[in-house]
User: Fold this.
Amino acid sequence: MNTKRAKKLLGVGAVVLAGLLLVGCGGDFKLPTTTLTMSVPQGRSGTTKITFTRERFEGEVSFSLTGAPTGVTAKFDPVKTDKKGTETTLTLTVGDTVATQKYTLKVVAQSGNKKKEQTLELTVQVKPDFSLAATPTALTVKQGASGTVTVNITRNATFTGPVALTLEGAPAGVTGTFNPASATGASSTLTLNVAATAAAGTPTLTIRGKGDGIDKTVTVRLTVEALPDFSMALNPASVSLKPGGTATVTVNLNRVGGFADPVELSIEGLPTGVTATFDPSPATANAATLTLTAAANAATGTYPAITVRGSGGGKNKTATLSLTIAP
Assistant:
């Protein structure tokens, strides 16, 4: 081999060797020069991708974060790439008490004595929240009827998810349905259905809303009003009189649900020789007086099933009187 050719081959070998050395230890990697941005609400987490480029460089790259305020924690996945990896995922978790403002952080990538940084601007937003309000806060529904309540949902700037609504504390015979049950807007309509058998009263109902880990309630006072009706009671329910004598019984009328019709009173099952009168009849108030008169020849004995009947407003009620004719 002549000297000229040998020098040429030697030069080529040197270039190849220099290239190999450059690839093995003389390469580099770069983080983007652009600024990363993240917006994370208080009490929540956010993620972003960190990518870099390799320039004839093979080596593990580890990541860390500097400049984070107290209450902000960082997690890289992976925290160290393999020799050919070019990205990691950064998760930032913001505590409930971190001030709502903008923070400038630094993502640090390092491999050996090679260290690169990329700016990350973190905006901490207010914690997601919502509130509930009911309109009206109290309503009256008659037995066998229904009523509606509007549930208003007020969201802050960072709460955008649905609110699942449920009803608690409804007594037997009272049911509620929401439209919609999972509210994505500013309101939902609650329909309260009161069965005819529901007991009259004033229960307090609780409307509960849940969404994004937040739990809120609002109360509604429901008055279940009885249907127009009445009932009867006798005082006393058992009387005794002698032939030729008299006795009086008070007929009490318990009116509910606005029942105001006059009640016509009558009596059934009196023994021979006993007569009855009502004052007044029909009864327009809450009581009337029943007067029983026994003739001188009225037969003595006990009559336990005398019926006092009241009729009015399409309704019929009865009460039982026990009568004794004593010697």
User: Anything to note?
Assistant: The radius of gyration is 45 Å. The CA atoms of residues 308 and 319 lie 5 Å apart. The longest strand covers residues 114-125.
